[in-house]
Design goal:
The structure holds two protein chains of two kinds. By secondary structure, chain A is mainly α. Helices cover 65% and strands 2% of the residues of chain A. Chain A has nine helices and two strands, in the order ααααββααααα. In chain A, a hairpin with a 2-residue loop joins strand 1 and strand 2. In chain A, helix 1 packs parallel to helix 2 and helix 7 packs antiparallel against helix 9. Chain B has ten helices and two strands. In chain B, helix 5 packs across helix 7 and helix 6 runs antiparallel to helix 7. A two-stranded antiparallel sheet of chain B has the order 1-2. Chain B is mainly alpha-helical. Chain B starts with 12 loop residues before the first helix and ends with a helix. The chains are: A mainly alpha, B mainly alpha. The interface between A and B is large, with 46 and 45 residues.
Chain lengths: 275, 292
């Protein structure tokens, strides 16, 4: 079987297209690279969506966390504490067991039956956990950035008569983003790394449709040779990390465009945020 | 455990709960918390030592050594740590068995053949005939070593940064006093770097705590294993039948981890304040101002 044939069969195997049976014997390098790459679709799906939704929720939580009102601040504090203080692995298990407890027949809401079966599937359940998790980590970053906005900037804004929403929109928001961006880049990278946990933590891989590490593990189990599939995953993730760093770097440059070039904050990769 | 627990089906209420929670399997569950603590107790110093070695190597003037150190510190940057966990456990196991096979087997053929990893019976680690406890201990040792390698790389990253953060003037002054390179390293650099390394190391400790459930993936019977085992619904065939309680067990684990990280946070904050005393850093300045 030629390599091109393999690519056609397995390139979209992880989302249910192409050959149904996974290779069982005579594993070729081409099969491993194709199938593991196919699994990467799930990692990108989880990472990108959790990051996109999480960004806005995180800013809301960060604002609540720095609010003067106890009633806003306390829940935000607890949310961040619970999700940052416990392992993501346990969060996945807990979420899966909780979602399993939902009645199988569906929940009755205002006379309409809402299906619940889909929530235990990885694409929804795991995405939800990742969304909450990244929100908590990013909220802490944005909260830190909000606190380190120079006092003079805020006083100047008030002197110009900016208050409330205007002050936030014009002064706090851009400065917060600029200060938080390097740390947020790290968060994004480690979120993508964390997506590899999904199929090892309770959420079953439906019809063997798993992520990159799921397939790598499949090959390592079948061939008893970890020296091929795991380096392939590693290479894919290094590529993904480079792409992310580049994309976030562009945004960083945009956020810093008004500053003289020697004051710009550079993005340094710091492995401080894995969960 | 207790005499009253002899017939679990006949008892109810609090007695039942007391008997249930002290059953043999539950004792194993509680002991598995000790496994986690043991892992932390061994891994943390080992990883710190490996990180120290890595960071020192990265600073070396001898190029190959420096590249080796930098490469080691860099491996964890772009790749998910769980990939390393899954990789090293098999790779180490096979590496050990291959080396042993070179020593004890007559047949020295390449062991990775087709879909098998084949070494002779005498080269198996532990030997097929050894008791289950040895298999568990070996599995645990492999897991600990894997954790130490991965977290050593993180620590190397942190310590390399911290060594670079010690003010140059301090080192130059030491050299001006006539200290040798080794003396500067031992007397000036190492004592001063900790305050710069502490934020990173604190972070690392938190990450390490939160990585302990991954032991489950490495095949160790840890708290996650027991929570799944004990929580699953038990039919009447079991001594203590109950519905699916996994949710409650995992909730218990969540609370355990939350308490653990909270306590660590408090202790590390105190340690940081202690180390900042008298240092020329923002933390030290804040302490001086507070005292004045």
């Amino acid at each position: 079987m030629s390599c091109w044939q393999t690519v056609q069969d397995y390139a979209f195997r992880s989302i249910g297209f192409g050959e149904n049976l996974l290779p069982r014997s005579d594993f070729t390098l081409c099969q491993q690279i194709t199938l593991i790459g196919s699994g990467l679709i799930w990692n990108v799906y989880f990472g990108a969506l959790a990051l996109a939704f999480g960004f806005f929720f995180a800013i809301a939580v960060a604002l609540a966390k720095s609010s003067r009102h106890r009633i806003l601040r306390k829940p935000a504090d607890w949310f961040v504490f619970v999700f940052r203080g416990s392992p993501l692995f346990i969060q996945f298990f807990l979420a899966y067991e909780t979602l399993q407890l939902l009645p199988k027949a569906g929940v009755e809401v205002f006379g309409i039956t809402v299906e619940t079966a889909w929530t235990t599937r990885a694409w929804a359940g795991a995405l939800f956990v990742l969304f909450l998790n990244t929100s908590a980590y990013a909220a802490e970053i944005f909260h830190g950035a909000l606190k380190s906005i120079p006092k003079g900037d805020l006083e100047a804004a008030e002197a110009y008569g900016l208050t409330g929403w205007q002050k936030f929109r014009r002064i706090q928001w851009p400065t917060m983003l600029r200060l938080a961006w390097p740390a947020y880049t790290n968060e994004a990278i480690f979120l993508f790394h964390a997506t590899t946990l999904v199929f090892f933590s309770g959420f079953p891989a439906f019809r063997q449709m798993g992520d990159a590490l799921y397939y790598a593990n499949y090959f390592a189990d079948k061939t008893f040779n970890p020296f091929v599939p795991y380096p392939i995953v590693a290479a894919y993730f290094i590529a993904l990390t480079l792409i992310l760093t580049f994309g976030f770097g562009l945004v960083n440059r945009y956020l810093n465009r008004h500053l003289p070039s020697n004051q710009k904050s550079r993005i340094r990769l710091r492995p401080q945020l894995i969960r | 455990m207790f005499a009253a627990c002899a017939d679990p089906k006949a008892i109810e209420g609090l007695t039942w709960a007391a008997c249930y929670l002290t059953s043999g399997k539950h004792i194993d569950f509680y002991l598995s918390f000790a496994t986690v603590l043991l892992l932390l107790a061994i891994t943390a110093p080992t990883a710190l030592a490996m990180g120290f070695a890595g960071a020192t190597a990265a600073r070396s003037r001898f190029l190959p050594l420096s590249l080796l150190g930098k490469g080691y510190a860099a491996i964890v940057r772009g790749v998910p740590d769980i990939v390393f966990f899954l990789f090293f456990v098999i790779a180490l196991d096979q590496g050990i068995e291959y080396l042993k096979s070179l020593a004890v087997c007559d047949d020295h053929s390449w062991p990775w053949q087709g879909l098998e990893f084949r070494v002779c019976q005498e080269a198996k680690v532990p030997l097929g005939a050894s008791s289950a406890i040895w298999h568990q201990a070996y599995g645990f040792a492999l897991a600990v070593f894997t954790f130490a390698i991965v977290f050593g790389a993180f620590a190397a990253n942190v310590l390399y940064g911290a060594m670079g953060a010690v003010p140059k003037a301090q080192l130059e002054t030491a050299e001006a006093y006539g200290m040798s390179q080794a003396q500067v390293f031992r007397r000036i650099l190492v004592p001063q770097m900790w305050v710069y390394a502490l934020p990173g190391l604190s972070n690392l400790w938190m990450i390490l705590i939160k990585a302990t459930p991954l032991l489950f993936l490495l095949g160790v019977k840890d708290i996650v294993y027991w929570a799944r085992e004990l929580g699953g619904s038990k039919t009447q065939a079991y001594e203590y039948p109950h519905p699916d309680w996994r949710l409650w067990y995992f909730l218990g684990l969540l609370v355990f981890y939350l308490c653990f990280t909270k306590v660590s946070e408090v202790v590390l904050a105190r340690l940081s304040a202690r180390l900042s005393r008298g240092q020329a850093t923002a933390g030290g300045e804040a302490l001086r101002k507070a005292a004045a």
